[in-house]
From TrEMBL, chain A:
Domain HPt: 1-103
Occurrences of domain CheW-like (ranges): 552-682
Reaction equations catalysed: ATP + protein L-histidine = ADP + protein N-phospho-L-histidine
UniProt keyword Kinase, yes or no: yes
Enzyme class: transferase
Gene3D superfamilies, A to Z: Histidine kinase CheA-like, homodimeric domain, Histidine kinase CheA-like, P2 response regulator-binding domain, Histidine kinase-like ATPase, C-terminal domain, HPT domain, SH3 Domains
The protein's name: Chemotaxis protein CheA
TrEMBL record, chain B:
Location relative to the cell: Cytoplasm
Domain of life: Bacteria
CheW-like domain residues: 6-146
Keywords recorded for this protein, A-Z: Chemotaxis, Cytoplasm
Protein name: Chemotaxis protein CheW
Native species: Gracilibacillus ureilyticus
A Pfam family reported for this protein in Swiss-Prot or TrEMBL: CheW
Length: 682, 155
């Protein structure tokens, strides 16, 4: 396919437009009168249609075209938004998404859109019939372009144009109507028109033209055309500028009277005839878009380029190699004690540190990418479940490593489904319990230290401890005796063990209890953790802690006998050197009294069966680590120091090794293992 | 030899016996180097090395096949093998030449080699009076196969 090089761009942009459609339609549902939103939706649909048609995806173009017609009707007050319309539009958007996904996976994006096209048509016509019955040509309005040039060429203006014209008046711009006539001998009319528009766009904004821009481009007009312009310049100057273009016969510029027109607008709009055509509206949409772009483009949007993620990964891999060599150089220079070399290496270290920040930042993506599909999902689910839910999203701009973003979507979907299904109650139950009928679901992301937290909080029923305990006992996850000793939090953690579901009825929504343990596993495989807080009757809070990045971390290198291990700094509270006499015994376990707390000790030598070479002395070095509330002290022989390391996997063959989360390559080229402090504490 | 397919193989030595690994699976032959022990893994897994930036697990084939350990010598080598999903290194006594083994002279492994039912031997070929055993690499790597073999020797 010759379009191949554009295909990728097309898919990416289509996805963005579909997302924007989703977002805006949701807003529209809440504020049916919001014309800006309708405009946004219209523009997205329109761009999508244009792109699809260019790429030759006819079904896609057809569907968007119909959608556009409906939106156009809404925009022109011919239709009022209701839930049914929103539903159909959502269905259409879903189908669009399906088609784009199909295209992305190599399909041709064809799909049976007839049903939806008919539905959209019906919506469109319903209104047409009720308000414009008198107009026999109403049905053809979507097909035929108009050239009803009356005395006033701009008798019909839509809400957008009105707003712009109004605002321009307020801001000291003047609205002009331009009648431009080309020379009879003009050969390339379209080119002249283009030049005129270029001149006009330098001095102001073209709001509307008659005939439409498209028709002008196709030379689908005689010699004269009319333009509605907003500018700060005066009429004479504009005229001069236009007349500088050759082959222009005349240009008549007169101020455009908005007020006079405004008064009659409501009635005029009511008996809109076929002249209010989607084709012309499209150009208006385009003009408006161009206008907003030129307004905001410079100030707001910074320049960006799209980069294939593979290239970034390649860059990251190369940089990791560099970090390893950097470590090696540091070591060599420390051994040689050569002043000049040391200085150079220090400089290099600083620069590569900066480089590291930049590369890591490049891979950071706002969590919004994951969050933005949730409003749709929550809307649909709450409808299916007959619940009222208000979803609030905070901190969508929080950034996370691309790899984490890719993995975190499914677990979040699951948790949200869980909250909606099991957490938030139905409106009547909520009323009985004296709560607001509308449940609230809070999705919140924020940075803290080297971690990103994502919280899902609902004000629903909360978790019933007894129910969980009973279930766990009957599923033989725990014994009755154990149950009594567990803290609330430990009990809540049980709902994430495999084969567990407390819902009395299995629903389609949150599955069969195979889910939450998958959620937990996914999050832990990302180096994160999940905790649950809950108060019965008041709601639950699922809190996910994730590392900022997966590939380069800070560690403390320690030596156990002759072996080197890396302990992630994120899990270290502090290090201490204690006398062996301070080690106490409790239940045959070694513990120490650390700042008033009893902390169990773990001898890495024993856990990892390290061959013994060194003699024990009276002092031992201890790394105090923590996992949530729990702490433990790791006995090691020596602290080597803090270092940035590149995380590498042990590979598929070794798979999961107890107590080890991965490996890294040290400055001397040797491999050191990274401790998995989470499993060690358990 | 028309119409026959030859199996090009690297010949390795273990306890004076010769084994063959298909040459297209070989990623390199390395000298012995520092191996980082990985705790809590099978005995024959010696640990991991840094192979040009990739952490690669290293297996001791002598231990895998239940032979007595010997001290490493100048000829001790690590053979890097590309498996489908990962690379792995084998410690062997020595690695020699590449040999063409015609398909038709490969015979199925005899049921009993010594005392162990060795499912890690795919076949045996006799080339110029040399007896060469072709390794079944999946089973060489398999922990189950190892444990089965060990039970066999203990009986």
């Amino acid at each position: 396919m010759e379009n191949n090089e554009y295909l990728e761009v097309f898919i990416e942009e289509s996805k963005e437009h579909i997302q924007s459609l989703n977002d805006q339609i949701l807003i529209l549902e809440n504020e049916p009168g919001n014309m800006d939103t309708v405009g946004e939706i219209f523009r997205s649909a329109h761009t999508l249609k244009g792109m699809a048609a260019t790429m030759g995806y006819q079904d896609l173009a057809d569907l968007t075209h119909k959608m556009e017609n409906v939106l156009d009707a809404v925009r022109n007050n011919k239709l009022s938004i209701n839930s049914d319309i929103i539903d159909v539009i959502f269905q259409a958007v879903d189908q669009l998404e399906g088609m784009v996904v199909d295209i992305a996976s190599g399909g041709d994006g064809s799909s049976d859109v007839q049903e939806l096209v008919h539905k959209l048509q019906a919506i469109e016509n319903n209104e047409d019939l009720s308000t414009v019955t008198a107009t026999p040509s109403a049905e053809v309005n979507s097909v035929q372009a108009t050239e009803k040039a009356g005395a006033n060429h701009f008798a019909k203006l839509d809400e957008f144009e009105l707003t712009i014209l109004n605002q321009s008046n307020e801001k000291g711009f003047t609205n002009y109507e331009l009648n431009i006539r080309l020379n009879e001998n003009c050969l390339l009319k379209a080119a002249r028109v283009y030049m005129v528009f270029e001149v006009l766009e330098q001095v102001g904004e073209v709001i509307k033209s008659d005939p439409t821009v498209q028709e002008l481009e196709e030379e689908n007009f005689d010699l004269a055309f009319h333009v509605l312009l907003v500018t700060k310049l005066d009429a004479e100057e504009i005229k001069q500028r236009i007349m500088k273009i050759s082959e222009i016969e005349e240009a008549i510029i007169s101020p455009f009277q908005l007020r006079k027109w405004d008064e009659g607008s409501s009635s005029e709009q009511q008996d809109t005839k076929a002249s209010e055509v989607s084709e012309s509206n499209e150009t208006q949409g385009e003009n408006k878009k161009a206008a907003t772009n030129s307004n905001n483009g410079k100030s707001v949007a910074s320049k960006t380029i799209r980069v294939n993620i593979d290239r970034l990964d390649g860059l990251m891999n190369l940089f990791e190699e560099l970090v390893i060599d950097r470590g090696r150089l540091e070591q060599i220079s420390a051994n040689l004690k050569h002043a000049e070399l040391q200085e150079t290496v220090e400089r290099m270290t600083r620069i590569s540190g900066d480089l590291q920040n930049i590369i890591l930042n490049m891979r950071m993506v706002p969590v919004e990418q994951v969050f933005n599909r949730f409003p749709r999902m929550v809307r649909q689910l709450s409808k299916d479940l007959g619940k009222k839910v208000n979803l609030e999203i905070i901190g969508a701009e929080t950034e996370l490593d691309r790899t984490v973003i890719d993995e975190i979507g499914d677990p979040l979907v699951h948790l949200i489904r869980n909250s909606l299904d099991h957490g938030i109650e139905t409106p009547d139950v909520r009323r009985e319990r004296g709560k607001d009928e509308e449940g609230s679901l809070l999705l919140k992301a924020y940075h803290s230290g080297n971690h990103v937290f994502i919280e899902i909080a609902d004000d629903g029923a909360g978790i019933n401890r007894q129910k969980v305990v009973n279930k766990a006992i009957s599923n033989q996850v725990i014994t009755a005796e154990e149950a009594n000793t567990l803290s609330d939090e430990q009990v809540f953690q049980l709902i994430m063990s495999s084969g567990f579901s407390t819902a009395d009825k299995i629903s389609d929504v949150s599955g069969r209890g195979v889910g939450l343990d998958v959620v937990k596993n996914t999050i832990e495989s990302l180096g994160g953790s999940i905790t649950i807080e809950s108060k019965e009757g008041e709601g639950s809070l699922f809190s996910i802690q994730l590392p900022l990045t997966l590939s380069i971390i800070s560690v403390l290198l320690v030596e156990v006998e002759k072996e080197k291990y890396a302990v992630p700094l994120s899990s270290i509270i502090e290090t201490a050197i204690i006398n062996r006499k301070e080690i106490l015994n409790a239940h045959n376990k070694k513990v120490i009294d650390f700042r008033g707390k009893v902390v169990p000790l773990i001898s890495l030598k024993e856990v990892f069966e390290v061959p013994e070479v060194e003699e024990e002395d009276d002092l031992c070095s201890v790394v105090i680590i923590r996992k949530g509330e729990k702490m433990a002290g790791l006995i090691v022989n020596k602290f080597i120091g803090q270092q940035e390391i590149v995380l590498k996997s042990l590979g598929d063959y070794l798979g999961d090794v107890f107590g080890i989360s991965g490996a890294t390559i040290l400055g001397d080229g040797q491999v050191a293992l990274i401790l998995d402090t989470n499993t060690l504490i358990n | 030899m028309e119409g026959t397919k030859n199996q090009q193989s690297i010949i390795i030595e273990l306890e004076k016996e010769e084994y063959a690994i298909p040459v297209e699976l070989i990623g390199g032959i390395e000298r012995m180097q520092h191996i980082t022990r990985v705790p809590k893994t099978a005995e024959f897994v010696k640990g991991v090395i840094n192979l040009r930036g990739v952490v690669t697990p290293i297996l001791d084939l002598r231990e895998r096949f239940g032979m007595d350990p010997i001290a490493q010598t100048d000829s001790t080598r690590i053979i890097i093998v590309h498996m489908e999903k990962f690379d792995v290194g084998f410690i062997v006594d020595a690695a020699y030449d590449v040999l063409d083994i015609p398909q038709e002279i490969i015979e199925p492994a005899p049921k009993v080699i010594g005392t162990v039912d060795a499912d890690y031997i795919e076949g045996v070929a006799k080339v110029d009076k040399r007896l060469i055993m072709l390794l079944q690499l999946e089973n060489v790597l398999s922990l189950e196969s190892y444990e089965k073999a060990r039970e066999g020797t203990h009986l």
